[in-house]
Amino acid sequence: MVGKRIRELRKQRGMTLRELSDELRIPFTTLGNYERNDRQPSIETLQAIADHFSVTIDYLSSGSKNKRQLNLSDEAFQQLMQAEFPELTKEEFELSRKFNNLTELLKKNQNEREMKIISEIIEFLFQMKINSSRELFSEVDSTPLTKNEYASIYIKKKHHMDGSLNELFEIYYKELK
């Protein structure tokens, strides 16, 4: 779907593949691979293409009929976010934007297993961040955990996350055409 949409939008503007690749600063051959669906763009590249054509990522990736997006550049959106959340850094804004884009893609795909895995991964990251900044206690005798005990717990959870990432890869691999 992505490749078809890119080609349609490019032709609507009367652009050659070479012209679009120059404007997007994407190698000509890579862009051709996207159009033929031989390769899928990263979320950042997908966002750049969507921004270039003033369409939504959803329009490019899922065939949504909602072509138009709010015409705010990332800078304008960041300024609005800064006014509302002055403590938000550029990196935090970028992370938020990527997370929102991922959420939109997940909503359209509606693969419950995929959503569950991603939710587990986010929860794992959240717990690791929270736990790294406070003292943890043993569930057995309520004594503080040593760094080694904490590392052991982390390694067990990491092993589970590795399995989840592998399962997520399998889901995406099956979706390849």
UniProtKB/TrEMBL annotation:
Example of a GO MF term: DNA binding
Single GO cellular component term: cytosol
UniProt KW keywords: DNA-binding
InterPro entries per UniProt: Cro/C1-type_HTH, Lambda_DNA-bd_dom_sf, TransReg_Diox_bact_type
The keyword DNA-binding belongs to this UniProt entry's keyword annotation: yes
Domain HTH cro/C1-type: 6-60
Gene3D superfamilies, alphabetized: lambda repressor-like DNA-binding domains
Organism domain of life: Bacteria
PANTHER family (UniProt xref): HTH-TYPE TRANSCRIPTIONAL REGULATOR, METHYLPHOSPHONATE SYNTHASE
Designated name of the protein: Helix-turn-helix transcriptional regulator
Species, as recorded: Gottfriedia endophytica
